[in-house]
Amino acid sequence: MAAAAPVTAGEDERRRRLGAALEGPQPQEGANVEAESGELSRLRAELAGALAEMETMKAVAEVSESTKAEAVAAVQRQCQEEVASLQAILKDSISSYEAQITALKQERQQKQQDCEEKERELGRLKQLLSRAHPLDSLEKQMEKAHEDSEKLREIILPMEQEIEELKAKLLRAEELIQEIQRRPQHAPSLHGSTELLPLSRDPSPPLEPPEELSGDGGPAAEAFAHNCDDSASISSFSLGGGAGSSASLPRSRQGLSPEQEETASLVSTGTLVPEGIYLPPPGYQLVPDTQWEQLQMEGRQLQKDLESISRERDELQEGLRRSNEDCAKQMQVLLSQVQNSEQLLQTLQGTVSQAQERVQLQMAELVTTHKCLHNEVKRLNEENRGLRAEQLPSSAPQGPQQEQGEEESLPSSVPELQQLLRHTQQEAQARLQAQEHGAERLRIEIVTLREALEEETAARASLEGQLRVQREETEVLEASLCSLRTEVERVQQEQSKAQLPDLSEQRAKVLRLQAELETSEQVQRDFVRLSQALQVRPVPAPPSCLAPFRMTSPWSCKDSLMVRGVLSSSWGWHGPVLSYCSKNPEALVCASQSPEALSAEHGVDAQGICGVSPTEVASGSTGPRPCPWGLTDGVGAAFPHQVPSAPLV
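User: That's the sequence. What structure does it adopt?
Assistant: C-alpha cells below.
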C-alpha cells in the first residue's frame, strides 16, 4: 500500500505538469504545427500535382504515340489498299486487253485463212476457166496452133505438089481422051487401054503419100480432120479440071467400056483435092457456132464469177485492212492506257513515299518530344527527391515536438476530429482547385502567348515579304529612274544642240524687228511732230481735176498722193499741200496755206472745202455741211464738228 501511494502521487504530479505544460505553450505550438502542417500539405499537394501532371503528360504521350501509330497504320493500310486495288484494276485491264488482243489475233488469223481459201478458190476457178475457155491461155494456144500450122504446112506442101502433078496428068489424060474420041470407035480399044494403063498405074504412087501422111500425121492430122469435119467454114473438095473435066467425063464414059470407066473413076477420085480449105491463123482454133456461143456464155459466166470473187477478195482485203487498223488503234489505246496506269502508279508510289517520309518525320518529332518529356519527368523526380531530402532533416529535430503538438492539437472527441478532417479536406480541395485554376490560367496564357507569337511571326514574315517586294520594286524604280534620267539628259543635249541655230535665227529676227520698230516709231514721232507743226485747213479743188478720183470708198494714202500730184502739176502746188480728214476722208484739206493765199494765188474759194472756213474749223462751231464738190458720192456727205488734223501721207 505504501508503495502504491507514491506511484499514484507521482502519476498525479506528472499529469499536472503535463496539463500545465499543455495549458501554457499550447497556443504557440498549435500555430507552429498548423504552419508546418500547411507547408507539408502544400508540398504534398504540389508533389501530387506534379505527379498528376507527369501522369497526364505520360498519358498524353502514350495517347499521341498510339494515335500517331494508328494514323500511320491507317495511312499504310489505305495506301496498301489503293495499291492493291490499282494492281487489281491493272491486272483486270491487262487481262481484258490481252483477251481482246488474242481475240483480234484469232480474228485476223481467221480472216487470213478465209482470204487464203478465197485465193485458192479463185485460183481453182481460174484454172477451170482456163480449161473451159481456151482463149484465156493464149500463149499455150498460140504455141499449139503454131505447132499445128507447122504440121499442116508439112502435110499441105507435098499435097500441093501432088495436086499440081495430078492436074498436069489430068490435062494430058483429057487431051488423050479427046484424041480418042476423035478417032474411030473400033480402033482405039487396045490403044486406049494401052494408053490408060500407064495412067492407071501412075496415079497410084502419088496417092500413097497422103495415106502415109495420114498415117504418120498422128493427133495433129486427126485433130485437123476432126475440126475440118465439125467446122462450117471448110469448102467442099472439087476436081482440079473444073467444069470442063466434069462435062467431058460423062461423054467419055458413054463411049468407054466398064474397065475404062473404072479406070476413069479411079483417076477422078485420085484427082480430088481440097482447094478451099480455111486455115486458121496461129493461136486460133476452128469451132462450130453453137460451141462458140456456149463457150462465150461460159466465159461471161466465169468472168462474172471472177469479178464477184475479186470483189469479195477486195472486200476481204479491205476488211482485213480495217481490222488491222482497228487492232493498231486499239493497241495504241491500250498502250496509252498502260502508260497512264504506269504514270498513275508512279504518282501513287510518290505519294506513298511522301506519306511515309511525313510519317517518319512525325515519328522523329514524337520521339524527340517523348525524350524531352522523359527528361522533364526525370528532372521533376529529381527535384521531388531533393525536396524530400531537404524536408526530412528540417522535420527530424522537430519530430518529438510535432508529435507532441499533434497529440496536443488532436481533438479528444470523434465529432471534433471529423469536423477537423472535413475542414482539412475542404482546404485541400480549395487549394487543389486554386492550383488547377492557376495552372489552367497559365496554360491559357501560354496558348495565347504562343498564338500571339505565331501571329507576330506570320506578320513579321508577311512584312518581310512585303519589304522584300518593296525593295525589289524600289530597285526596279531606281533602275528605271536612272534610265529615264540618262534619257532626259540625252534628250536635253539633243534639244540644246538643235535649238542653238534656232535661237541664233530668232535672236537675229528679234534684233531686226526691234530695228524696224525703232525706225517706225521714229517715223511716227516725226509724223506727229510734223502734223502738230502744220495747221490743218480745207483746200478746194476744181471738180474737173478731181473728177477722176471720185470713189465710193475712202481714199487711201496712194489716192491722196495722186491727188496731190495732180494739183501740183495743174495748179502749180509744190510740197505736202493736201491731206484727208479722219472723220470724212473724201474731203480734201489744206495743210500749208491759208484760204486767202489759195484764193489769191489759185482762184480757190476762201471758204475751203465743204463750205467750212478755217476759223470755223479751228473753233469747232460749225455743223455738218454737204461737200460742194460731191466727192463722197453718197457715202459720207456730212462734215464733222471738229476736223482733227491727220498725218501727212
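Residues 534-649 form one domain.
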